[in-house]
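Q: Given only this backbone (294 positions), what sequence would you predict?
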């Protein structure tokens, strides 16, 4: 091959490489621009709520709306906070969420550990039955549960919200089972040789090695309990026992046109959930990665 031919091939190859690089860069730019546009679209309602929460009342109802109002005030938070006993309601929600997280994580991890580490006749069928309960809508069991708790005298108390959490959750049982199965069996065999009991296997081996799934399950349970509206609506009647979502609904019905009061309270209810997701995102990703691998 002549020198000129070699130079031509080299130039052609270099041009093709540059063209492919430019095409790839354009595709990446287009994808990033699309993602930014979608993110802005989804963040727009949050920005509107944030802006409305801090706007003076006169600017909230201005038309056309003022998106970038310079005047800010905390008066909306003060008036909205004092319109209902929100301090007590916040404590109620924290209490219900904390007990729900403990009950759900503890009971589901025990059941998941049993399914993962012990073999028994009919265990697979029983596990399928547990998973099948995930397909039953909560609304279909609402009336039977209300009748049961009414006969037990638990209406207008936190017992209907808290006691069922100590009987496991199908989704978390599945999550814990998948994660516990990823732990090498040799650890448990060595502990059993040393005389460890089933509880010791769970508490001293499974729990320390499963921090990601415990944190992820706790976060999921906390978000579910924090945002729960249906059960408190059905089982709670006294305002002093309300949780945040139920209080916000009651607040909305009384102040249906008072956006300058509703938005600050909704923002205060949303912030803990946002903080939980931001803090625990990497733990959720890690636990779900183990589940996918299994």
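A: Predicted residues:
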């Amino acid at each position: 091959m002549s020198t000129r031919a070699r130079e031509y091939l080299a130039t052609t190859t270099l041009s093709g490489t540059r063209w492919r690089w430019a095409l790839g860069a354009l595709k990446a730019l287009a994808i990033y621009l699309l993602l930014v546009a979608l993110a802005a679209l989804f963040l727009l309602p949050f920005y509107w709520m944030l802006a409305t929460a801090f706007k003076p009342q006169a600017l909230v109802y201005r038309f056309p709306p003022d998106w970038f109002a310079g005047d800010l005030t905390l008066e909306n938070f003060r008036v909205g906070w004092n319109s209902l006993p929100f301090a007590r309601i916040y404590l109620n929600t924290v209490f219900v969420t904390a007990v729900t997280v403990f009950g759900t994580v503890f009971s589901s991890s025990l059941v998941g550990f049993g399914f993962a580490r012990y073999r028994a006749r009919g265990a697979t069928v029983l596990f399928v039955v547990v998973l099948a309960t995930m397909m039953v809508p909560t609304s279909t069991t609402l009336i039977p549960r209300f009748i049961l708790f009414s006969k037990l005298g638990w209406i207008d108390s936190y017992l209907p919200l808290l006691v069922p959490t100590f009987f496991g959750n199908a989704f978390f049982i599945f999550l814990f089972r998948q994660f516990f199965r990823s732990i090498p069996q040799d650890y448990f065999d060595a502990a059993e040789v040393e005389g460890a009991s089933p509880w010791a296997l769970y508490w001293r081996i499974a729990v320390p090695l499963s921090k990601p799934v415990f944190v992820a399950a706790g976060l999921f349970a906390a978000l579910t309990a924090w945002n729960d509206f249906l059960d408190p609506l059905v089982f709670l009647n006294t305002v002093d026992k309300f949780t945040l979502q139920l209080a916000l609904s009651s607040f909305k019905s009384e102040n249906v046109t008072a956006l300058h009061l509703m938005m600050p309270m909704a923002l205060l209810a949303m912030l803990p959930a946002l903080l939980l997701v931001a803090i625990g995102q990497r733990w959720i990703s890690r636990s779900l990665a183990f589940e996918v691998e299994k």
